[in-house]
Amino acid sequence: MFRFLMQAESDFGIRLAETSGGNLRNAIPRESFSLVVVPEVKAKEFEKFVKGYEKMYRSEFAETEPGLQFKAVKAVLPEKVMKKDDQYRIIRAVFICPNGVLRMSQAMTGLVETSNNMAIVKCSAGKFECHNLTRSSVNTAKEANAWKIAAVFHLIDADVTMSGAILAGILICNHLFSKLLLRFCKFVR
Fold first, then answer.
1. CA 115 to CA 145: how far, in whole Å?
2. Across all residues in the chain, what is the average pLDDT?
3. Domain boundaries in the chain?
């Protein structure tokens, strides 16, 4: 979703009112929704753009997600949208955050050594949340990945606090749009 939002912001000047993807911290999100405002003069072109993304995503995920849908539906104009600077930073931070398989084991063929699951992303009512479940069979690799995720959110001027776990952890980030403050960001045991 955030790949799409980044290009839509660049090409169409969209304004993000809210977004939501995933609802379980230990599961790969199966759905994602975003409420965006598109300048009326660009609405028809935007609809074509969305169809192009659906075609591209269906091609990229043909084997794993044959029923994938990516649609634009007209909605009621939201009362508020994110501040431009916050929108810009959040879209890019989520887009570059490490996600998926990060390293395969050198010791055991076929074993995923280190991975991150960006399980929940929500932007709504002035609050941003990004929940990540980081796993590794190598503690130092998990810690390095947690620091990498923290660095992503440091880039949007977030204050990050972490504590470690042996085999699994979760990074929770709450971000107030107007002040670019991170309420809490923890790598939880």
1. 8
2. 83
3. 2-187
Decide: 39 and 72 in contact? Cβ < 8 Å: no
Report the distance separating Cα 175 and Cα 122, nearest Å.
10
List the structure tokens of 36.
């965006």
* Phi (first) and psi of residue 66, to 5 degrees: -65, -20
H or E segment at 37?
A: strand 32-37
Look at phi and psi of residue 164 and say left if phi exceeds 0, alpha if psi is from -120 to 50, else beta: beta
Q: Tell me the per-residue pLDDT of 123-163, one tens digit each, with 9 for 90 and over.
A: 898 888 888 888 899 989 998 998 899 899 889 876 666 65
Tell me how far apart the alpha carbons of residues 26 and 135 are, in angstroms, rounded to a whole number.
Answer: 10
Name the β-bridge partners of 20.
33, 122
Cα–Cα distance between 144 and 169 in angstroms, integer? 12
Amino acid identity, position 46: F
Q: What is the arithmetic mean of pLDDT over 37-65?
A: 95
Mark out the alpha helices in 17-102 (DSSP H runs).
Answer: 43-60, 84-96
Could you give phi then psi for residue 119, rounded to 5 degrees?
A: -85, -35
Q: Which long-range contacts (CB under 8 A, 24 or more apart) does 57-62 make?
A: none
DSSP class of residue 91 equals H
User: Is the CB of residue 145 less than 8 Å from the CB of residue 99?
Assistant: no
